[in-house]
Design goal:
13 strands, 373 residues, alpha+beta, disordered C terminus, binds zinc ion, four-stranded antiparallel β-sheet
């Protein structure tokens, strides 16, 4: 029976140059389906094996080479690693992970900048939050139901947004149509609808309701979630009716186009870096309070500093890891200043640890001192 080509001592497999081109896993898989030896083709491009007929696509997962003998594709490897926890039915999970991690080492080694120069592979990709002001509406209860349904667009496509964040840096970002299609298909069952990303001290990470609808349309990503009949949901309704909340989602970038030095243009007069997110993994979404400075205009905003960075600041070990992986030295000095201010200004947490991800960390609002109003 053909097996994936997973031997980490297979130097040839791991010494090929990395393919930094765009990635289309679906196309790679269907070209194997047309091959005269499909089983060995799948085995040469995939890291994941499932039980069943090896000549069938269903028996394989986690493709990351465009074709047999091709170098690993960097986006394909990141995509496969991001997807590994959700991939069902693997009979070689540990070996698949080791294989992908070996490629990841290769990718990181290849993208290491010369000493003293900033990283060139762009801003952080994991633990990011985007929010949209007019993203939450209440729809009247369906007949018989006592509670309304949350609905709206949690993201919009093809709209350049300036991200100006201590954690992420400053750049323009847009979401490409199709960026959510894979995560909607594969991760919807594990996604939750949460209030304040699970950080509200009263509600914590209790789900607001099931996901009834989650689809990409021409505008962006539309969702609907009927609210559960609970006391914490009833407490939220007046604020929701008054339009006090935006919609927000937490995600990880799986595939992107990153341009560190774009031409100046009407939408980018300063020529700051540009990122187009082509595929992402969304973990949860839901209503959030919009910070006053985030402006009244439509479009997405980054709330990564408010939610993710704040959690780092309350956890010295994670902060240390963040500092080690910080994208720029400017960010480093800001981290140092902020963590000192946080230590001086925050009341002590009585020895509580916030390392448990299920436990809501206190919401500390941090403003980027460089953010322009
Ligand atoms: Zn490989």
């Amino acid at each position: 029976m053909p097996r994936p080509n997973l031997d980490p001592s297979d130097l040839e497999h791991f010494e090929r140059a990395i393919d930094n081109g765009s990635w289309d896993g679906g196309a790679a898989m269907s070209s194997c389906a047309k091959s005269s030896t499909p089983a060995s083709c799948y085995g040469a491009i995939c890291a994941g094996k499932r039980a069943g007929d090896s000549s069938k696509q269903d028996a394989w997962a986690l493709p990351h080479h465009a074709r047999p003998g091709a170098p690993a594709n960097a986006s394909g490897v990141r995509n496969a690693l991001g997807r590994l926890p959700q991939t069902q039915g693997l009979i070689n999970r540990a070996a698949a992970e080791a294989h992908l991690q070996a490629h990841m080492k290769q990718i990181q080694a290849a993208s290491k900048p010369p000493a003293g120069q900033p990283r060139s592979d762009g801003p952080p990709r994991a633990n990011l939050i985007r929010a949209i002001r007019d993203g939450v509406a209440l729809r009247a209860a369906a007949n018989g139901a006592s509670m309304p349904t949350l609905s709206g667009h949690l993201a919009v496509f093809n709209q350049w947004t300036e991200i100006d964040s201590i954690f992420e840096g400053r750049f323009l970002e847009q979401l490409a149509p199709g960026a959510f299609s894979q995560t909607i298909k594969e991760d919807r069952a594990s996604m939750r609808v949460l209030f304040q990303h699970g950080r509200d001290p009263q509600i914590g990470n209790k789900p607001l309701g099931p996901i009834e609808e989650l689809t990409e349309d021409k505008t962006g990503v539309a969702y609907a979630a009927p609210m559960l009949d609970t006391s914490y949901n009833r407490d939220l309704i007046p604020g929701l009716e008054a339009g006090l909340y935006g919609a927000s989602f937490r995600f990880e970038v799986l595939e992107q186009d990153f341009n560190n030095k774009p031409e100046r243009s009407d939408y980018n007069p300063e020529g700051i870096p540009e990122r187009t997110v082509k595929s992402l993994r969304m973990m949860e979404f839901g209503p959030v309070t919009f910070p006053a400075y985030a402006g009244a205009t439509a479009g997405l905003r980054s709330l990564t500093d408010e939610f993710i960075f704040a959690a780092f600041l309350s956890d010295p070990e994670r902060l240390r890891q963040l500092i080690e992986s910080a994208p720029t030295s400017a960010a480093l000095s800001q981290v140092a200043t902020l963590s000192r201010k946080a230590a001086e200004g925050q009341p002590h947490s009585h020895g509580e640890s916030h390392s448990d991800p299920d436990r809501p960390a206190p919401l500390v609002v941090i403003r980027n001192p460089n953010r322009r109003l």
